[in-house]
# Entry
Amino acid sequence: MASNPKEISNEDVAIELEAWLDAHWDSEKRCEKGKDKLDTKSWLTTLLEAGYAVPTWSSDWYGRDYNTKQARIIENILKSRNVIGRSQDRFNLGAVTVYRMGSPELKQELLPKMLTGAFSCLLYSEPNAGSDLAGVRTKAEYVPGKDGGEYVVTGQKIWTSNANEATYGMLIARTDWDVSKHSGITFFIFPMKQDGVDIRPINQITGESEFNEIFINEARIPARYIVGELNGGWKVLQTALAYERLIMGEGATERQGKDKSKVHPLVGLARRHEKLNDPVLRQKIAQAVAYRHLNALNMRRAKAEIIENGSSSLMSLGKLAMSRVQHGEARVAGEILGPAGLFDGEAFPDSADMNFDSAKSYMHSIGGGSDQIQRNIISERILGLPREMEVDRNMPFRDVKSG
Amino acid sequence: MTTISAEERIAMRDSFARLLEQRADEEALRKAIDTDAGYDPALWQEMADMGILSLLVDPEYGGIGGDAILLEMLMEEAGSRLLCSPFISTAVVASSLTGASTNDDMKSQILSKIVAGQLTIAIAMTGEKGLWTTAGVDVTARQNGDSWQLDGNASFVMHAETAGRILVIANVDNEIRAFLVAPDAPGVALSTLKTNDPTLRLSQITLSGAVGQLLEGVNGVAVDHAMNLARIALAGEQAGGVKRIFDITIDYLQTRYQFGRQIGSYQAMKHMAADMLVEVESATSAARHAAEAFAKGSDEAQTLVNLAGFACADAYRDVTAQAIQMHGGIAYTWEHPAHLYWRRARTGLWLFGSSDHHRDQYLTQLEAA
# Structure
């Protein structure tokens, strides 16, 4: 595994990885050296054992004890060589959650699987628990038995992407109905491939079906698959959600700025439709592009602050800022197209894209915590303003109204 | 070429912040506003002693050889206090243009006076259209034997009434040149323009055959460079100001009670505050990245200066406007500082190029990218 963790210089991090890749990875064929095609599981295992899948993690747990800056160096090199399985300490939500909050036994059992292709979907939201996530009504009941017994789960989850491909689900379920809503929730790693799990696709306003509804009927979870404490799931969830928002705020900034030669799509669209000289549209295009640019600059500052101080409150602004970017760009695209925006389909690709993006923007402003919830979080956790009053906060969950 | 280190920049910013805390609080600000000069000459002298005025001057000429990054940092401090002074005219634009001159005697004479705090210089750049680009120059100069004579109008000239010299940008056969003019010279007529922002002093200058001293070697490129520095300074000032008025507002949301609750506990207020924070941080990012790109001579510098030119101005306008709304009646009084920030913010919407102008230029930069 890692040699001399922590004391290694940034230059040596790069040199060491380049040498390792030269020996193990074929950038041309995009597979392991000496093989003809990619064996995903085998490659991910090789990457994991070398400590390059999760470089910021402890060397006791597949990592290299690297700092954020060193991890970015690794990420950039792996990206430039088309290596799959990189930066799982940032993007593999299930593994990050287990690593941060799971018991040593759970980490031992699940991390090797989760980091070599057995990834996780999210089982948080329910039809009656969206923004008010602590109102979940999926129940998990303990049944004694061997290996510490198991939980029997019944309920309905919604807005799960990649449910069919996932091996595990990150599940929150109610384990105590007689305490207040936040105090009776437990966080589980839920085995998806079992009877009692019925996955049905949702038809979305974009025409896509990325998300699913999950109907769970007396499905089983080993009791040792609890993350954190029994009835302590709300705390675990907060950490897991923070990671998710971080990825959402950051991921969407990458269109502009990095590749300077690439003209922003709105400029290209206006040029194609001969609207680049319209002074009113120029103002709107520039403003839309600027919002994306400004968020990228905020994120650049946030990363510098994280490297300097270990954290940055700027990160929390990204998701809210990106909602305005997504909706705004789609709106301006519509204004560039004019009445041609009425058309759709393959014969009208610009119109079809614009109409698709207009609908898709809601995924950003609703999914992963709506803009309104984000504003609560920013005002309470960053600005320190008082919490909103919640009438159901301190009553037994059994008595809470739902609908 | 700058030799100043990151530590030196921070040390300088911190001393400047302490100076302003002691000498430029709200009481001092209101006192300065009520004077004819519109600024505190004693504080100006202390800024000179601290090296603030020599920020952009080469060490060879007694300056500290700072860069746009340091300039932006200092302006955040100045902006948070709504500092009134001829700083941008004298220590940014005039310093930069004089520094670009090839006449070494004149250069060293002028810069040494600026550095010592003995000379303030007003910038006569734009005509009545207020464009602040070389295309907006409305003064022409012609050579008459050994001397130059200037004719035309310059408006929006800051702190001209107290300036020791006026630096006039003029056209000479479709080329941009710069001249120093004595405000009391024959052919120079100066009239004060009443402003909405009491922290701002503006005049109009009419030149009728006034004699000007050519600042040799200064051309359109040097003027564009100096104006970009002025825009970075203004963006920094706006970033500092918007942060301060935002902090004042958040503090008020925590301490003001209505219906038995802190008003900051209402979502109507919290959601406004969250949106405002995005604006505040975006303005800060825009100003700092523009300064950094400019200091490093990056290809993106002009794009980022234009971005900061509208993003900081618009954020300042929007946040100050919301700040008054969120304070309610108390901020509708002259005694409350919110309107002073709001007025300064509105000044920034037009000064050194309007937001719309910068947005258009930003897009022009992106088209070329």
